[in-house]
Amino acid sequence: MTKPFTEQTVLITGASRGIGAAIAERFASVGLNVVIHYKESHEAANEVARSCMRHGAKVLTVSADLRSKDQILKMKEKLEQRDMVPDIVVNNAGVAHYGLLTEITESDWDHIMDVNLKGAFLCTQAFMATMIQNKYGRIINVSSIWGISGASCEVVYSTAKGGMNAFTKALAKELAPSGITVNAVAPGAVDTVMMSGFEDDEKAAIKNEIPAGRFAMPDEIASLVYFLALPESGYITGQIISPNGGWLT
């Protein structure tokens, strides 16, 4: 490791709300430098930044469309100028889609794949060279339980997250000799805006299927991401860990 953990920098994509915001605050609470990525939610990202700065952390917000390699490289350049090149990359940005496969357009498919999978690839590729040079790094991908089991009416989303899981396992083998771990956190149902598309009776039905009887809170997912980023977690790599309240075992 090139520097003490509390002097490291973490980049969280899609950090303007939900799980990403919780992850940003978790790292800020112990003093890491935090880069909050967002695409369009400028004020929401600033609110997360203000919350992180209350912990005394150095915080930077950056906007980029993760579907664009040019925009990611511009984001990288900005981080280099601010001396905030990440030691830890959390690929959290994602979009969901609920509907029958017969109703999915080619444009829908491309958008979901580009944000969930291509974005993780491009962002990882942009920052892994520095990790390789330093012989240290953490790449943590936020996947989904549906990437493991698949979900009816969420075929494209499940496919994208399944691809992210395969990406995680393969890249972990590629980067392990360089002291870099690559893991995925694949949550079950989490109490975020992504659940807003479900009616109350649908949410109740989902909770009834979960042995824990509730949705996860974003902070609980953030704690697992934080654990995987720790220096002492260096022998954990290539794993898909699913905090899901016993929904999938």
Automatic annotation (TrEMBL):
<comment type="similarity">
    <text>Belongs to the short-chain dehydrogenases/reductases (SDR) family.</text>
</comment>
<dbReference type="InterPro" id="IPR057326">
    <property type="entry name" value="KR_dom"/>
</dbReference>
<keyword id="KW-0560">Oxidoreductase</keyword>
<dbReference type="InterPro" id="IPR020904">
    <property type="entry name" value="Sc_DH/Rdtase_CS"/>
</dbReference>
<dbReference type="InterPro" id="IPR036291">
    <property type="entry name" value="NAD(P)-bd_dom_sf"/>
</dbReference>
<dbReference type="InterPro" id="IPR002347">
    <property type="entry name" value="SDR_fam"/>
</dbReference>
<dbReference type="Pfam" id="PF13561">
    <property type="entry name" value="adh_short_C2"/>
</dbReference>
<protein>
    <submittedName>
        <fullName>3-oxoacyl-ACP reductase FabG</fullName>
        <ecNumber>1.1.1.100</ecNumber>
    </submittedName>
</protein>
<dbReference type="GO" id="GO:0004316">
    <property type="term" value="F:3-oxoacyl-[acyl-carrier-protein] reductase (NADPH) activity"/>
</dbReference>
<dbReference type="InterPro" id="IPR050259">
    <property type="entry name" value="SDR"/>
</dbReference>
<feature type="domain" description="Ketoreductase">
    <location>
        <begin position="8"/>
        <end position="188"/>
    </location>
</feature>
